[in-house]
Amino acid sequence: MSEQHIKLPEGSIEKTTTTLNLGPTHPATHGVMQNILELDGERIVSAEQTVGYIHRAFEKIAERRPLYQITPLTDRLNYCSSPINNMGWHLTCEKLLGVQTPKRVDYLRIIIMELARISDHLICNSIVGVDSGAYTGFLYVMQYRELIYEIYEEICGSRLTTNIGRIGGFERNFNDIAFRKIEKFLDEYPRVLKEFENLFTRNRIFMDRTIGVGSISAERALNYGFTGPNLRAAGVDYDVRVHSPYSSYEDFEFDIPVGTTGDCYDRFLVRNQEMWQSLRLIRDAYQKVQEFKGAEADVYHADVPEYYLPPKQDVYTKMEALIWHFKIIMGEIDMPPGEVYNSVEGANGELGFYFISDGGRTPYRLHFRRPCFIYYQAYEELIKGSMLSDAIIVMSSLNLIAGEMDA
Amino acid sequence: MSRPVSFNIKKKPLVSDISMAEMPEGHQGEGFFATTLDSVIGLARKNSIWPLPFATSCCGIEFMATMGAHYDLARFGSERVGFSPRQCDLLMVMGTIAKKMGPVVKQVYLQMAEPRWVIAVGACASSGGIFDTYSVLQGIDQVIPVDVYVPGCPPRPEAILDGVMNIQKLVGKESLRRRSSPGYKTLLESYGIQ
Amino acid sequence: MLSNEHIKQRLIEKFNDQVYGFEEPYGTLTFEAPREMNLKVLNFLYDEEDLKFRFLTDLCGVHFPGQGEKELAVVYHLHNLEDNVRIRFKVFAPLSKPDIYTATGLFSSANWMERETYDFYGINFIGHPNLRRILNVDEMDYFPLLKHYPLEDQSRVDKDDEMFGRGGSIGFGTAKTDHGTVVEAEKHNAGEEKV
């Protein structure tokens, strides 16, 4: 009877599963990604991911821009922790050019990178809370992200997409207000993190929703190219800061938290513990920076005249500074040819930059190794057989940032 | 050398604890107040706009900061952010819209019920921003009509609040007949929306 | 300690002269092989107990216009996590027939990375389970990251290329003049030809 009026697609009458489109705009997708799920009742039978809804062609833009103009692009990769992307890019350029940064610059860089890591893990963990129904944690810790934003503002002027630093160091020295704000953060934040942990870690509802959900074994994780907290939650202690130390991380002592089963609960705990370790690193780096006295305390960049803009007083008075300023701004500096791959430990994993230079002014090819893009492939395997609400929690515990995924 | 950044260093005393909305013009008497229907409905609508945050990228994180306790969008009446287009008044498009996403934005706009307003937050939503590439839509006004543009990359939360306040001005002064007027119809038809 | 010399020796022992182009830019051993051999080399690096390159860090494509047989490249970055050694492996293909065997049988992470390379360069990975566009719109009919396609969308009307320094006399080194790009033209004028 009804078949006469409604034209059903082929094979849909025999279908036993429902197709659900967890579309690009959805309150639970943090960023734009689409999942087409086949559901049998409430159990997920298969899933298909579509990405590319925010593809901005970074790699093609980078072929057109000289080195400094690529830093704002790297900001917008993982925009929750943009200083790490910026520093990673500057470290890659420094590797290509053979620049050695002074220790004080390295320690200041560590402070900023660890603050960015805390900022990213805060969003991820509180959003896991929001997706399992606990909105309070998110609103409470957003207040402390504002403190981190104030520290960035003191140094580079901008809150979110920071464009912080230069090749060889920073654009200005950290002033007293910045140091006071860092101290204030170090005083206030541990208590807040403890409260946040108390709210979630032994909470019966949260544990029931996250233990055993979305687990992955270490072998499968390595095969899928996982890095970062997701891999460490599965049991492999691979951290780029320890394996190939950059920016003087080898001068510091810190632990790498490692999980066992790789499920959502382990990822949550690993990120929390990493925040404690980041606090430890910031405290140690801050102390070490305070130990530089006199002329050493004014060092905030390496001596790279071809890539670091000279101070304005010199530009208006000295000839060489004027010429360097002109050449850098007009983009007339040629890079040495070569190819380099450098990676840093981003908040989501190993963020790599593969840079091929042909001796011109802009990169010949710049490829970003983006951790989110690589581990999102495993999403189907993680949620097969579990329920729809588990799929949401797995998505938020993986910390998928759409900007990094699509680049 | 470097100027320290500091806000609100002069403490401004509070004039009063409660800020009252301005009364529309009308005729007042003992126990009654008469004014035009437009202004009353405008006053009611503008102070309870329910936004639909269409957050795609970095501007979405600044929106999260705006919703947080520090900058608080809720005091402007937007306490309840909805994710269903059928229930929302204001479509806030925040972030880069790629060409792949364009039809999705249009579909969400079509699903909203009149009266509806659109605010384009950020440089990418307004004009494509720094991404002048083959895959990025150069501004969402290529696909849907926009009421307010908020520039910035990303705009500070104060700028987003300023954008919402401008929407409130538009909402408060809108005529009740606007949505069925021929001018509005031609505007929608120029976008291919019937 | 696994040294680059040792890896080079093992590769030459196994594959003789089918691996070539050994270089060590910035400490990373880089070599090439013909594209039919890519799976054999990857499997060798994976299985051997003293090499153990079992983590695929990155897979990307590069376009070298005008190089004939070696126009499109696929670059694999492998990582031995236990001994902390990285290695770079390149295969080349001509633009007319860009067929390369897929590495998804060995590394599941190569799945989307190969789709991205296909989307950007048009390299056809033989044996890939789902080779279709991933980041761009499905209906796109060209491969955008090839060097001869422009960055901007040519159909946009609100941005004036002349004002942005493109297509005009100031091309930031990339606009075309009589002697090639502006960079080359300047070098020609200064007397240093680009070799």
Structural class of chain A: mainly alpha
Radius of gyration of chain A, in Å, reads: 23 Å
Name the helicity range of chain A: 40-55%
What is the fold-level CATH name, i.e. the topology of the largest domain in chain A?
Cytochrome-c3 Hydrogenase, chain B
Q: Count up the domains of chain A.
A: 2
Strand order of the largest sheet of chain A: 1-2-3
User: Which structural category fits the helices and strands of chain B?
Assistant: alpha/beta
Low-pLDDT residue intervals, each spanning 5 or more residues of chain B: none
What number is the mean pLDDT of chain A? 89
CATH class of one domain in chain B: Alpha Beta
Judging by the overall fold, what is the CATH architecture of one domain in chain B? 3-Layer(aba) Sandwich
Basic shape of chain B: flat
Uncertain regions of chain A: pLDDT < 50 for 5+ in a row?
none
Corresponding CATH architecture of the largest domain in chain A:
Orthogonal Bundle
In total, the number of strands of chain A is 6
Strand order of the largest sheet of chain B: 3-4-5-6
Predict the CATH topology of one domain in chain B: Rossmann fold
Looking at how many chains there are and whether they match, the oligomeric state comes to heterotrimer
Radius of gyration of chain B: 19 Å
Major sheet of chain A, described briefly?
3 strands, antiparallel
The helicity of chain B comes to 25-40%
Question: What labels would you give this structure?
Answer:
heterotrimer; A: mainly alpha; Cytochrome-c3 Hydrogenase, chain B; 2 domains; three-stranded antiparallel sheet; 10% strand; C: 195 residues; alpha/beta; five-stranded mixed sheet; two-stranded parallel ribbon; 9 strands; elongated
How are the elements arranged and paired?
The complex is a heterotrimer of chains A (407), B (194) and C (195).
Chain A: E1 18-22, E2 34-40, E3 43-50, H1 58-62, H2 67-75, H3 82-97, H4 103-131, H5 136-156, H6 176-200, H7 204-210, H8 218-223, H9 229-233, H10 240-243, H11 264-290, H12 312-317, H13 319-330, E4 338-345, E5 350-357, E6 365-369, H14 371-375, H15 379-383, H16 388-397, H17 402-406
Antiparallel strand pairs in A: 1-2, 2-3, 4-5, 5-6
Chain B: E1 26-29, E2 32-35, H1 37-46, E3 51-55, H2 58-67, E4 90-94, H3 102-111, E5 117-121, H4 123-127, E6 148-150, H5 157-173, H6 182-190
Parallel strand pairs in B: 3-4, 4-5, 5-6
Antiparallel strand pairs in B: 1-2
Chain C: H1 4-15, E1 20-23, E2 29-33, H2 38-47, E3 55-63, E4 72-80, E5 85-93, E6 99-101, H3 110-121, E7 124-126, E8 176-177, E9 180-181, H4 182-190
Parallel strand pairs in C: 2-5, 6-7
Antiparallel strand pairs in C: 1-2, 3-4, 4-5, 8-9
